[in-house]
Amino acid sequence: MKKALSLILAMAMLLGIATLLTGCPKTEDTTYEIALITDVGTIDDKSFNQGSWEGIVQYANEEGKTYKYYQPKEATVDTLLTNIELAIDNGAKIVVCPGFNFEVAIYKAQEMYPDTTFILLDGEPHDADNNYKTSSNVLPILFEEQEAGYLAGYAAVKDGYTKLGFMGGMAVPAVIRYGYGFIQGAEDAAKEMGVDSVDMKYTYTGNFDATPEAKATAAGWYQSGTEVIFGCGGAVGNSVFAAAEEADKKSIGVDVDQYFESETVITSAMKNLKKAIYDALKSFYDGSFAGGSTLRLSTKNEGVEIAIANAKFNKFTEDDYKAIYAKLVDGTVTISKDKDADGNDIAIADLPLNIVKVTEIA
Asked: Count of CB atoms within 10 A of residue 312's CB?
């Protein structure tokens, strides 16, 4: 009997510990009005999910709002919708969905839950046949990633690097825009400095994972002379950082300031995710929420940037950064994106390049 009682008490203690680790159980009067559904990964991914979560935490703590996150096991439409339903059942008034994986799920959810408000980052609602529609309860937020990529490429060349690499994840529009901007920033900096040639290796890994293959590719680039690689695609950056550390070379982070990931990170091309979510939540609660149309964030509204406070540049200064940033804001500098004005895809060969020599690697 004593052994049975001890076993019961031990199980009770374990259940109590599990509750502390996973969050308080929902009771009749416990609701969470702000929800984040992660894009498969975790809220401490040091990238897209984390930046979004930090915006929620800041706003909710300042304004006394309840909040909770939900982590799907996979990115299928049905799984994402199940998590959205769970968040709403738990009292969510507004649901933040970071990533293009949510586009089809939000297309359906906006009609299924017309009384719930959604913030969709890096995507716009569409069905499986790419028919787009955004209802008034949805605010899609897109970023001008090419500007952040441009700033990173410009700074790298201004700092003295002329052998660069771009390792993207999946070739989705956001990643492509980062890469194209990176190329063009390097081109413009080289022109200003009178540099004759900049070499750039360029590839997409086909996923957003840290893999031995990605690390091996980055290591091969470093061994052949590449000085700095822009790791652009979630955990792909971790493969780049690891290779850079072993080769004693440099790297560039993405989405958030990834200086803490590796001593090799000289800067990061960033989306101001925290501010974007904070401002969107504020607009929801103050009645100025602009649902039904897409919000585009750029240098003009402090939506994109590169990391300066924790940067490890040798020559590129904060004044240099402010000067080129101002040119993006006032339109002095224009950057080609992933598509032209008619919506046609742009290839790297179509970019206005004279100095940067890009070697595309399949």
From this structure: 13
